[in-house]
Amino acid sequence: MTSAIPGVQALTSIFRTAGGVFLLLLETVRAAFGRWPRRRVMVDQFYLIGYRSTPVVLTTGLFTGMVLAVQSFNQFRRVNITSMVGAVVGVSMVKELGPVLSGLMLAGRVGAAITAEIGTMSVTEQVDALRALATNPVRWLVLPRVLAAVLMTPILTLMADLVGIVGGSFILVGFLKVEWHFHYTNLLDWLKVWDVSVGCAKSSCFGLLIALISSYKGLNTEPGAAGVGKAATEAVVTSCIMILISDFFLTVAFAAIKPDWAN
Amino acid sequence: MLEIRNLHKSLGGKHVLRGVNLVVEKGEALVVIGGSGCGKSVMLKHILGLMKPDQGSIHIDGRDIAKLTERELYGVRQQFGMLFQAAALFDSMTVADNVSFALDEHSKFSTAEKKEIVAKKLGIVGLPGVEKMFPADLSGGMKKRVALARAIAADPDFLLYDEPTTGLDPIMSDVINELIVKLKKTLKVTSIVVTHDMASARKIADRIAMLHEGTIRIHATPDEVYASDDPIVKRFINGQASEEQMKEVWGYTATQAGEGAKG
Ligand SMILES: Nc1ncnc2c1ncn2[C@@H]1O[C@H](COP(=O)(O)OP(=O)(O)O)[C@@H](O)[C@H]1O
Ligand SMILES: [Mg+2]
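Predict the joint structure of the above. Result:
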């Protein structure tokens, strides 16, 4: 029996989840080419996943940008190039911190909510009721959440980037007396359309991972209220880890395909 | 015609169904009785293809639905209405949206027509005017009746009722019993009714089947079932505890407990 060895058990569980999430992706894509659920069901998810996440993501972006400004300023002051700090803040936000931190915050907020909702529906037989009413739960439950997450995550990330840069600039120019003109030209000089696009593409992938993993965990919740809590925790942890792992590979992949005009 | 052949199913390490054989003729009302946890709900779920058999087959009008894919099953399920044991109403939708779900998904009725059908079906189950309420605002019995309205909304050919009268007061129970009889008579619906309520079994049933330890213990007309001298069938019909159960409660055997239990 494999279950006697904890390492083997953990490994099979990871592969089972990965396989299940991949099959769910295929099923969702298939559903996307069919008839979509009525508009209300779609709009609700855009509202819940997108609009309702704004405060969390904006707060994350703002304070990340500001703390980054303070920390970098202290380093750069030693070599007397404080006018470059704004550019460092901008590039770091756009390329890494915006997408990854927004992704992690959304994994907590949106991921847990998706799993708890779908998980509750599973254990109260509402998912079976959907199937009994000849409706594919993937089409009805997963597709709207995946679409909303894939489209709203980059928008939220851009907002986080923006407030992070504004917050950082405010600290630098307002309190740390960096010259506005140099700060501004360096920032614009270093911020590249390509990097912003890559950041958006990465956050779309993070949104997809969050929605798929959380839906999968919800649909496979064990019976009982305890099962829902367990599934939600697993969804958040798995989503966060997958965001960090995939971030590395996406970064490498995008670096490899970077076109000449982007340099 | 609906036929279950040698159905086996294990769940959570327990061999729940151990070779169920059952035939339900078109237009017939079959009442399934049996102790709690003996697998009645599991059996109903197999009929809809919500669960897959470990072994055996389920034939609906000659087609083995255990062999169909989930996608093919959606077509089959449109002929079915199912009342789940715990109602399984969609929490996030109003009563009206719940009841008209199958119509919204699979029919071409106009909004006004659907509204009329919903009002009519809610009237039938004795709940006129609750359209705008949410499931959370309803009592257990009301939820059950809304779920019944949802099951009959699209006028299915087969109706599966999982304990339709459990949790209802005696008068409402009788209304639901009459409704089941009426649906059978007027719409020629083939019904399978799981119940503990021998009064409703008597009223509804063309035939009664008793599920006991994973197989069908008796399958006969109500008169034959009532006349049966099988001790297990007799005890269930009369609502009598077995010797062992008496001993567990009283600490001594049923004959000794006679006086204690009665007076
Ligand atoms: N999804 C499931 N996972 C594990 N065990 C289940 C599941 N559904 C039902 N069971 C078990 O199967 C048995 C029969 O359940 P059920 O059909 O609900 O009984 P009842 O006859 O009261 O409707 C019970 O022991 C129950 O614990
Ligand atoms: Mg049951």
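Residues 8 and 17 of chain B are 5 Å apart (CA to CA).
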